[in-house]
Design a protein that fits this description.
Elements lengths: L4 E7 L13 H14 L7 E6 L3 H13 L6 E12 L5 E4 L8 H4 E3 H10 L4 E12 L30 E6 L8 E2 L2 E2 L9 H12 L9 E3 H15 L6 E5 L5 E4 L12 H7 L4 H15 L4 H17 L2 H13 L3 E3 L2 E8 L6 E7 L2 H4 L1 E5 L4 E5 L3 E6 L5 E11 L2 E12 L65 H36 L3 H8 L1 H25 L11 H36 L1
Length: 602
């Protein structure tokens, strides 16, 4: 992968001839492919892009590209344009100034490209053809030539290069997708984004094309990945290839790394197989430490050993191994990303995801569920972004896969379509001039009185009525929810006490099983910490009964201090808490009484 590497990307999406419909995919393909090939961490190619150039400029650039190739170079040529079939059945690549009736003079022939490939000194040459293929109409006729399909790979068949040189051609499709009809392309030739180049970019960027996870992406691996990706999304499109090359040619580095597990040391393996289960518990603790090591080979070997113990050992040891494995799993934070409402066509929003866990768990790869989702590795974890070009609701899972297992991250967004601003309202007409009104005589209240409301001499007039007050009344004191809370806490403690009693029983059974293999039962009970478990059961059962009594006592508060539904809710919760708390208390007391007796005689 340290040899010189050069790539030439030719993309044509604008055509002067009206018979060649404009394409929208090549422009996007050229930018995305140039970015990933030029990334030193991925392709590490020296990339040149030629876009919407005339045929003579493309021919000159292609010939110079292959002529300048040196012996140890790897050359990659990528065409993204219309592919045209001449009347004689030859293949041509359309340029900006291509005229379908004058293909020899205004297009780039596949024979010319093939000739340049055979003359180069470079030992490795790869040609990618992402073209929409059509047949040219016959001279003097506006109808399509019936019959034959265009077999693209046949245009590059010929003698072997020899001299240790090799080449490969990979095409997006090896059949005619649509044809000309008169001066226009037939219906159904509507442009659409390229699945082929998108698959190439996705496989190289994510590293998913590194099928054997050895850190390098070979040509064969990339073709297999692209073939499956394209066929899965469009069963009617079948990529093809022809190869005349010895050995593998590697096109890119991969962020994926295959971790080879290392065997655990012999002393640790002996502890794993020791008849004494305490020795095996110690081996589990040591393996847990190894799993958290930055040495991924050692960590993976230790994890496999813990999985072996979990499946084959007795329950006590297997449970410890299961807990150790759970502590070493990958934990993304957060587990859900909601980008909310994003305007269509706006800059892609980004969200960071922190990957928690040991180095083995964080050594994982991201597998987006949709093309609208983008991921990049960061020091803390992942940077997730979304494509805002298509309106609608977006929702999908981001699968994180690694040697330590899998984790799922939910990603959601709503792309809102852009709306044109509403038209400005028409200007309002100027207001009419004010009308002339007759003069009015101002009359004061002090000088006149209404006939309907006579006022006696010497008496003041009636005062105006006072409007009703709108001041809100003070709110009643807020109701208390103390009683239901106490009853709910009592129910929680009751359930905890039941769980403690059940756990004590499980520990006692495990100690009894070990007693049959030999040893002192009291010692086994002490090792399992059954006394602590019984103490927890007693404390929580008593606490549940006390809180239930306090809750019932709180019901004696005035009605204005509690919500109307508090009595019924409190009584139900308190009664439910008593059901498990009383049996748990009795069983815990019996176990506490029996514990010293069993410890003394067995």
């Amino acid at each position: 992968m340290d040899r010189p590497r050069h790539a030439l990307i030719i993309a044509n999406d604008r055509y002067e001839d009206g018979g060649l419909r404009q394409l929208r995919a090549p422009a996007q393909d050229a930018v995305a492919l140039a970015e990933v090939l030029g990334d030193p961490q991925v392709g590490d190619f020296d990339v040149d892009v030629l876009r919407n150039e005339p045929a003579h400029a493309i021919r000159r650039t292609v010939e110079r590209f292959f002529s300048d190739g040196r012996r140890d170079d790897t050359l990659m040529l990528h065409f993204s344009c219309h592919g045209l079939k001449s009347e004689s059945g030859h293949l041509y690549f359309a340029a900006r100034d291509t005229e379908p009736r004058l293909l020899e003079a205004t297009a780039v022939s596949a024979a010319f490209v093939r000739h340049c490939m055979t003359r180069t000194r470079a030992r490795r040459t790869v040609l990618f053809l992402d073209c929409c293929y059509g047949g040219a109409f016959s001279r003097g006729s506006s109808s399509v030539r019936a019959g034959s399909d265009l077999h693209v790979l046949d245009s590059f068949a010929g003698e072997k290069l020899g001299g240790g040189r090799g080449w490969a051609v990979i095409t997006a499709s090896d059949a005619m997708e649509y044809a000309f009809e008169g001066a226009e392309l037939a219906e159904g030739a509507a442009p659409r984004p390229s699945l082929f180049t998108h698959a190439v970019v996705e496989g190289l960027t994510s590293g998913e094309a590194d099928l054997d996870a050895d850190g390098e992406i070979s040509l064969d691996e990339l073709y297999d990945y692209v073939f499956d990706h394209v066929r899965q999304r469009n069963p009617h499109q079948t990529p093809g290839r022809t190869v005349d090359m010895q050995g593998d040619v590697y096109l890119a580095h991969s962020r994926r790394r295959r971790v080879v597990p290392r065997k655990v040391p012999p002393a640790l393996r002996a502890a794993m197989e020791d008849p004494n289960f305490y020795a095996r518990l110690g081996a589990v603790a040591e393996l847990h430490t190894c799993v958290e090591s930055p040495d991924l080979s050692l960590a993976l070997g230790a994890r496999l050993a813990l999985e072996e113990i979990e499946q084959n050992d007795i329950r006590v040891v297997a449970d410890e191994a299961r807990r150790a494995l759970a502590k070493t799993e990958l934990r993304p934070d957060p587990v859900r990303l909601d980008f909310g409402r994003v305007p269509q066509g706006s800059a892609a929003p980004h969200r960071g995801v922190q990957l928690l866990g040991p180095p083995l768990a964080r050594s994982c790869t991201a597998h987006p569920a949709g093309d609208w989702m983008r991921t990049e590795e960061t020091r803390e974890g992942l940077d997730v972004s979304i494509d805002t070009s298509t309106p609608g609701r977006l929702a999908g899972d981001l699968l994180l896969k690694g040697a330590a297992g899998e984790a799922v991250l939910r990603v959601e967004a709503e792309i809102q379509p852009t709306q044109a601003p509403p038209p400005a309202p028409p200007a309002a007409p100027p207001p009419p001039p004010p009308a002339q009104s007759p003069p009015t005589v101002s009359m004061t209240t002090a000088s006149t009185t209404s006939p309907a409301s006579p006022v006696a001499p010497g008496r003041p007039p009636h005062p105006p009525a006072t409007p009703p007050s709108t001041t809100p009344r003070p709110a009643a004191p807020r109701s208390s929810a103390r009683a239901p809370l106490l009853a709910g806490a009592a129910l929680v403690l009751a359930l905890v006490s039941v769980g403690a009693v059940v756990r004590a029983g499980v520990k006692a059974k495990a100690a009894a099983d070990l007693r049959r293999q030999g040893g002192d039962l009291g010692e086994h009970l002490g090792a399992f910490g059954i006394a602590t478990t019984l103490a927890v059961a007693l404390a929580t059962a008593v606490g549940a009964l006390v809180l239930g009594a306090l809750a019932r006592h709180a019901l004696t508060a005035p009605p204005t201090r509690r919500p109307p539904s508090a009595p019924g809710t409190t009584r139900s919760l308190a009664w439910t808490a008593r059901l498990p708390a009383i049996p748990a208390l009795i069983l815990a007391l019996l176990a506490v009484v029996a514990y010293p007796i069993v410890n003394k005689y067995w």
